[in-house]
């Protein structure tokens, strides 16, 4: 479990690096840049809280946290892929926003799973607070999408040719 939570910590740090890259996206609005500018600090705070959660779980003798090594490694690999694309400047604005929402959604779900690990009330509160912050990040991006210049925001393609 400690290794899983260390990888979660590494993911938060990598995501902070992603947002530091995206803040300079040439097509981003001032509002989108402001969101990305705030998020590296939030990611560092989340990483710190994950370390605290790991310590609490270890002190309580809890060996499992509701996620597997493979799941966490998959998230890290995806974050690493997004980071390299952001660093290379190959993400369109739409792709950058999709990636941000994708990462925040994964984190929100992971924090909610971690909140249920071991039935520790203090850990539950901390993790639910992290999940709420992730939800707020997603909400901010969705609100900025609603105000994009053409007014259409992003259109999510469900793969159905009839739509």
In short:
With 163 residues, the chain is an all-alpha fold. The protein has helices at residues 2-22, 30-59, 69-88, 93-115, 121-146.
The secondary-structure element order is: HHHHH
Q: What is the level 1 CATH name?
A: Mainly Alpha
Please tell me what the overall shape is: elongated
Helix-residue proportion: over 70%
- Tell me the quaternary state: single chain
Compute the number of structural domains.
Answer: 1
How large is the radius of gyration?
A: 17 Å
What does it look like?
The protein has 163 residues and is mainly alpha-helical. It has a single domain, classed as Ferritin. 74% of the residues lie in helices and 0% in strands. The protein has 5 helices and no strands. It has helices at 2-22, 30-59, 69-88, 93-115, 121-146. The mean pLDDT is 82.
Strands, helices and their partners?
Layout: H1 2-22, H2 30-59, H3 69-88, H4 93-115, H5 121-146
Helix pairs in contact: 1-2, 1-3, 2-5, 3-4, 4-5
Keywords:
163 residues, mainly alpha, Ferritin, 0% strand, elongated
């Amino acid at each position: 479990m400690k290794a899983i939570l260390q990888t979660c910590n590494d993911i938060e740090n990598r995501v902070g690096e992603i947002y530091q890259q995206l803040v300079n996206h040439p097509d981003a609005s001032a509002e989108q840049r402001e969101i990305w500018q705030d998020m590296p600090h939030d990611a560092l705070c989340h990483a710190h809280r994950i370390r605290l959660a790991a310590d609490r779980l270890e002190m309580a003798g809890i060996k499992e946290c509701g996620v597997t090594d493979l799941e966490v490694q998959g998230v890290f690999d995806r974050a690493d892929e997004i980071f390299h694309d952001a660093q290379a400047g190959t993400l369109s604005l739409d792709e950058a926003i999709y990636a941000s929402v994708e990462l925040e959604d994964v984190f929100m779900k992971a924090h909610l799973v971690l909140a249920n690990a071991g039935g520790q009330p203090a850990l539950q509160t901390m993790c639910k607070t992290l999940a709420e912050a992730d939800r707020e990040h997603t909400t901010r991006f969705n609100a900025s999408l609603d105000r994009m210049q053409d007014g259409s925001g992003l259109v999510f393609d469900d793969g159905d040719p009839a739509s």
